[in-house]
Amino acid sequence: MAAKRRKRMRTILRNAKIWLGGDQFASAVLFDSSQILAVGTDAQVEAQRQNGDQIIDVQGRLVLPGLCDTHLHCYNKGCTLQNIDLQDVSSIEEIVSRSREYIQAHPDSSVIHGRGWNHDYFAEGRILNRADLDRISTRVPVVLTRACGHIACVNTCALQRLGFTGAIVQPEDGQIDVDEQGCPTGIFRENAMLLLKPLDPPLTVTQIKERLALALAAAARAGLTTVHSNDVTSENLDLMLEAYRQLRAEDRMPVRVVLQCTLTDPESLMRYLEIKEQTPSDEVLVFGPLKLLTDGSLGARTAWMRQPYADDPSTRGIATMTRAQLDELVSLAHAHGLQCVCHAIGDAAIEMVLDTFENVNRTSPDNPLRHGIVHCQITDSALIDRFASTHTAALVQPIFLHYDQHIVEQRVGTELAQTSYAFRSLAERGVAVSFGTDCPVEDLNPFANLYCAVTRKDLHHPEASGYRPEEAFSLEAALRCMTETAAWQSFEEGRKGVIQIGALPDFTICDQDVFALAPQKLKDVRSWMTICQGKVRWQAE
Ligand SMILES: [Zn+2]
């Protein structure tokens, strides 16, 4: 007996304010699990209704194309959801007490991880050290990572476990802080943090899946329907891909994922290219670009600058790759038709990446693979022009303004600060600008990101005038950075990030109408319902 062909579930959203771009709106949309089938007035869409269609009355709410975040880290977000959350701590005392509570609640942990601290907010006015962490535990290794992910502090137990007992040999591209006696203070910077890896027991696919699933659920709850997630590395390539493949096969991906893969040697890059080649294309789990890191963070003064830091002339930050290493990997990816996106924050790092892109694009100056720079923070006007002349995409984080606007002048001086975080200038020169949050560096809430893009203010002071308000996006332009342009970045324009017949059935339904709100209220908007692949993935109570 032939199996009865299962009919695709169809859904109609009605009584809605559906944004079609510009000042165009519709009130109803019909879709199945693979595409949008009709858009129009309630009556027009009602006319196409069939028996069995699910009807959702959204009570006049605003429906946007599903929002996309073009750079975050799902796996790390999942870890922070499982580990000690140190965001918003305002003192070392608070870190100690919160960590002790965590140990009491998780007595069997063999290593304690926490993330999210920022010593600029500490009442004690200094950075963490191992003596602070020894007050948390002397029996179990404790690793507490700064919000930026570029600095970690460990306790003495961890140092002993790793064999850091005698003289310290400094690693390349990183730093282990030492005191006057030459003993480690507990602080590890940039690639020195890789030396902490042996503290952790080997990961299993099941553990990775748990963490990814937590993060993907958080993304759906926040109103995202696609995330470009940077989780795969040379070290975890097979495990991480397997975890994602299993989640996909088990239909446990409430949002679409474009993988950004940090492959730092030619062998693992070639292996990824081979796997990508053999994998049938899929619109839920996309094998995306090579993602390389070329410097650190501004907060930690590890962003690589052309001039010394204004508030610490002893350093220009850290280049985490040489130009030769960058050229080799980008050329290899480019030769195989693979897009490259590179983390670059300081002006020296940005310049190096632009040089590399210009070099690989010698015979294709319009940058057909859409290579891009992630972060793009410290720029002078010549660098901004070079983004445009090299057609380099900019994957920026407006939410970084929340914190960075309070440190950028101290770090780089008034003059350079005046041309930095120039996201609107980039867009106006024709650069493809898309938005991400770099979560867990910042929260993945797309409406907080939207608020920062449109107001240039920090989240706590909507009454302030904001940082370089002339760089603020219009609401509509900002929404395009989270929809259409984000889709362009993964070669999905026309299919994703728009509401039209034939496009993917992904929608973010807002609990408040962003077009009717004062800009400073945008940060308070939440997803009322998130629909991805035509299914409701999150719904507010
Ligand atoms: Zn990142």
TrEMBL record:
Keyword Zinc-finger on entry: no
Stretches that traverse the bilayer: none
UniProt feature coiled coil, ranges: none
Keywords, ordered alphabetically: Hydrolase
InterPro entries assigned to the protein according to its UniProt record, in alphabetical order: Amidohydro_3, Metal-dep_hydrolase_composite, Metal_Hydrolase, YtcJ-like
Gene Ontology terms for molecular function: hydrolase activity, acting on carbon-nitrogen (but not peptide) bonds
Name this protein carries in UniProt: Amidohydrolase
UniProt domain Amidohydrolase: residue ranges: 54-536
Organism: Holdemania filiformis
PANTHER family found in the cross-reference section: IMIDAZOLONEPROPIONASE, PROTEIN LONG AFTER FAR-RED 3
Keyword Hydrolase: yes
